[in-house]
Design brief:
two-stranded antiparallel sheet, mainly alpha, globular, 260 residues
């Protein structure tokens, strides 16, 4: 029954986002601007550094940024804050009356909203990266980057729910949202390839799940054939699901004890 509710919710939200084309256009325009600026800066930096940065050519950096930004722009940037408000307002307490876990339905809804935006960004990103930077360094790796992007979005959504669950205790997830975004931006590899980070920070990033949310698909799209990244993402998704589920169950029990 949970699987049926999950799929129905996912499809419903995906259709809703697709029907509201204005929102998709805004997301794509924002994505194009960000990619054009960041990729342009990285190409200039590579040109002044002998043609490469941390082993990435100017073309590879363009495809890296186009992919890492797609993985993040596809999501609701204020998701943690929104979840926190839903918990604080009592909306989640109402959702507890449904016969399926609140977390499962909320993840399905966010995934349904994100996938159409992801598809739009990816389609646009391929054109922007090719025109501004050149053909992909290794086209075969794009076949891995596709499923990696879906896994990146799924990991990100589940992790944000785990972070937002702090609102069950402090009624405000704003601080968690601020911290989370910075973690994804830097040690998640959204703004900069992890290989360009200082040694100690690179090691820390490799030990945390945030690299599964932007770095993994971007690394693949930039021409690196590393199928192990998909395995790593799937493993992190499993860990994050267990963690988010445990935190949500603890929060729901507290909600029921204190009466909402």
């Amino acid at each position: 029954m949970i699987a049926t509710w999950f799929l129905v919710t996912l499809r419903t939200e995906a259709r809703r986002v697709t029907a509201e084309r204005g929102g998709l256009v805004v997301a794509v325009v924002f994505y194009v601007v960000v990619v054009a600026v960041l990729a342009g800066l990285w190409r200039v930096a590579a040109a002044t550094n002998g043609g490469t940065i941390a082993g990435y050519s100017a073309v590879a950096l363009t495809w890296y940024i186009a992919t890492s930004e797609a993985a993040v722009v596809a999501l609701n940037i204020r998701m943690i804050d929104d979840i926190g408000r839903a918990i604080g307002s009592g909306a989640v307490a109402v959702e507890l009356l449904r016969p399926v876990p609140v977390l499962a339905l909320r993840v399905a809804a966010e995934l349904g909203r994100s996938l159409p935006r992801l598809a739009a960004c990816v389609g646009t990103g391929v054109v922007v990266a090719t025109v501004s930077g050149g053909a992909p360094p290794r086209p075969a790796t794009l076949a891995l980057a596709g499923p990696s992007l879906v896994l990146a979005v799924a990991c990100n959504i589940v992790a944000q729910h785990a972070f937002a669950a702090i609102a069950f205790w402090i009624r405000d997830a704003g601080s968690a949202w601020f911290l989370y975004q910075k973690l994804v931006f830097i040690i998640g590899g959204m703004l900069i390839p992890l290989e360009a980070l200082p040694g100690w920070l690179h090691a820390l990033a490799n030990a945390l799940p945030f690299r599964a949310m932007a770095y993994a698909p971007a690394r693949l799209a930039s021409g690196h054939f590393e199928p192990r990244l998909l395995v790593e993402q799937a493993a992190w998704l499993g860990v994050l699901l267990v963690a988010a589920g445990a935190v949500f169950r603890a929060g729901e029990r507290r909600l029921q004890v204190v009466g909402g």
